[in-house]
Amino acid sequence: MASEKQNIELLRLLHLASPSLPIGAYSYSQGLEAAIEIGDVIDEKTAQTWIAESLSIVADFEAPIFWRLLQALSNRDEQTVTHWTERFIAARDTNEFRAETIQMGYSLNKLVLDLKIADDSLQEIMANQAEVPLPTAFAYAAIALEISHETALLGFLFSIVENQVLVCVKSVPLGQVSGQRLLLSLHPKIEAIAHLAQHLADDKLSNWAPGLSILSMQHETQYSRIYRS
Q1: How many domains does the chain have?
Q2: Which of 9, 105, 180, 193 could bridge across to 59 with cysteines, CB 3.0–4.6 Å?
Q3: What is the pLDDT of residues 195-206, one digit of tens each?
């Protein structure tokens, strides 16, 4: 039977990873809308392939950086927080991808500040960041809420996948059952990425995804679009 501490941690994680959390994730597709526009994603099967492949980029870069940010914030190591924050922002290689992470990071960072759930040392570290991308803000919120690193990482990854599935449900479009089946099929991928993120060495990190970068740049001038990325 779960302990009271585990129950509290679960509730806090559900709060943080909820799609209802007002940070604007629903307005971004992370390049998926462009893939739908050109016909790369047309049904449940192609949606599953797209999301699984896009998660490979998260596995090699975003997730391990998030893991490092969790540890740095937990240790109140401002220099390391700044290092990985700046590196992540620098790796956003299109205007849309950069604007996306900065906007959501700003919103979540402000929400944590308004809720007054972080101690002074955490607030000072965040105040000293020139800009706050989403991974840094999410890690900040997780540490402030005393969510374990492993649990926070799973929540972070699930929120990314869930948002991609929601885009597919609304825009391919897929039915609700198809969307739920798609989300369930990606659970093993999320677990595998979470494991990898905790062990990937610094010199193995890579955000190399030229196809996705090109799609993002094309989306910036796409004639008809719903999403901001």
Answers
A1: 1
A2: 193
A3: 999 999 999 999
Residues 6+ apart with CB under 8 A from 105: 131, 132, 133, 134, 135, 136, 137
Read off the CATH number of the domain in which 112 is found: 1.10.4190.10
11 inside domain:
no
Q: Taking each helix axis from N to C terminus, what angle separates 95-115 and 120-127, rounded to the nearest 10 degrees?
A: 150
- The reply to whether 208 falls in a domain is yes
pTM: 0.95
Gap between the Cα atoms of 213 and 159, Å rounded: 21
103 and 132 Cβ atoms separated by less than 8 Å: no
Cα 125 from Cα 166, distance rounded (Å): 33
108: confidence class by pLDDT, cuts 50, 70, 90:
very high
Which pLDDT score, from 0 to 100, does residue 130 have? 97
Tokens of 223: 């004639």
What is the arithmetic mean of pLDDT over 44-48?
A: 96
Give the domain range for residue 99.
30-219
Gap between the Cα atoms of 70 and 105, Å rounded? 15
CB-based contacts of 64: which residues, under 8 Å, 6+ apart? Answer: 196, 197, 198, 200, 205
Question: What is the spatial distance between Cα 135 and Cα 151, in angstroms, rounded to a whole number?
Answer: 15
The alpha carbon of residue 151 and the mean position of all alpha carbons in its chain are separated, in whole angstroms, by 14
Specify if 190 maps to a domain. Answer: yes
Give me 88's structure tokens: 């992540």
